[in-house]
Amino acid sequence: MKQPRNWSVLLGAAFLMATSAVGPGFLTQTTVFTQSLAASFGFVILTSIVLDIGVQLNVWRVIAVSEKRAQDIANAILPGLGLFIAILIVLGGLAFNIGNVGGAGLGFNVLFGISTEAGAVLSAGIAIGIFLVKEAGKVMDRFAQGMGLLMILLIVYVAVTSSPPVGEALHRTFVPKKIDIIAIVTLVGGTVGGYITFAGGHRLLDAGIKGKAALLEVTTSAVSGITIASVIRIFLFLAALGVISKGLLLDESNPPASVFQLAAGNVGYKLFGIVMFSAAITSIVGSAYTSVSFIKSFNSTIARYENWVIILFIVISTLIFVTIGKPVHLLILAGSLNGLILPVTLGTILLAAHNRKIIGDYRHPLWLTVFGALVVLVMAWMGGYTLLQQLPELFR
Fold first, then answer.
1. Which among 29, 42, 61, 342 counts the fewest CB atoms within 10 Å?
2. What global pTM score does this model have?
3. Cα(86)–Cα(80) distance, integer angstroms
4. In terms of DSSP H, where are the helices of 166-305?
5. In the Cβ-directed half-sphere of 378, how many Cα atoms lie within 13 Å?
6. pLDDT tens string 26-47
7. CATH number, domain containing residue 240
């Protein structure tokens, strides 16, 4: 029997994935790469979108048909692998959540002039409020949708204001002057790496959208998530390109804020505060929810008190930021590990996609398997290279 579409949940999962991807790092990466590649960054975005869709379709479809979370799928492939992946996800999620809390605090600082630390505490309080509600899943869906739409509207406004050379951007998207492989891998890792890969898939599973009958809904939600994140990326790219094409210099200490301010003056700077807060707080919610979803199947107490564990995750992230600040070495190592998480998790999913004990009589499309295998190889090489490059810094 065909499962009816639940657009609220499908869009909620899509926006959860997209807004989890669009954090402080996403805003900075997009601006910095636009500065270095100019219109040719369009090619990087296009390539990353194709790769992102391939990753998400592999992951979300296998989660749906197996009716298992990623860690349980991994344990079915190799006992203990699920626990290993869960530890990587949680450590990476915690490290990046410290940055997310700081980004939300910066947003409040821009908007109201209060200290970043005070803004971080207020932001954590808002995120915690979502998980104090009985129907936290529905509130989280609505919150992700609302903040995501707000970000899109504001970034579109700034992009229009900056008057970018759209023709040049479109031309260089297909005929780039320069191709930057590292930029492509960075964008893929930042959009579908670490916990982000599973944010929407786990949300759909928790909402009961699973099984072969739900594959159309799952595919629709996965593609929608990538589309939403990509729309935000494209308009932010155009906004930055408009500023850079006029020969204006960005402030190296805060490139995305420069784009908004140079494009739309002081109003633009305030809009940046709203966008930074929106991007960061939705990433706080997505990171906490998805990280805890990776450990709740190992302990019935965690599953029973899931929302309180999510709240604890947010509190710990905030306390570390307020007392220590952004621990640079931890973030460097977490970033490198994040690059390695995707090939490990996607590789596991691809093995599961052809294991009858896990997926039953479902037949996984060959093109998705080939596509996924290519991403695994590229991301494994780049993640390993980056980690080796950065390890000496950690022991200085």
1. 29
2. 0.89
3. 10
4. 166-174, 181-192, 196-206, 215-245, 255-293, 300-304
5. 18
6. 898 899 999 999 999 999 999 9
7. 1.20.1740.10
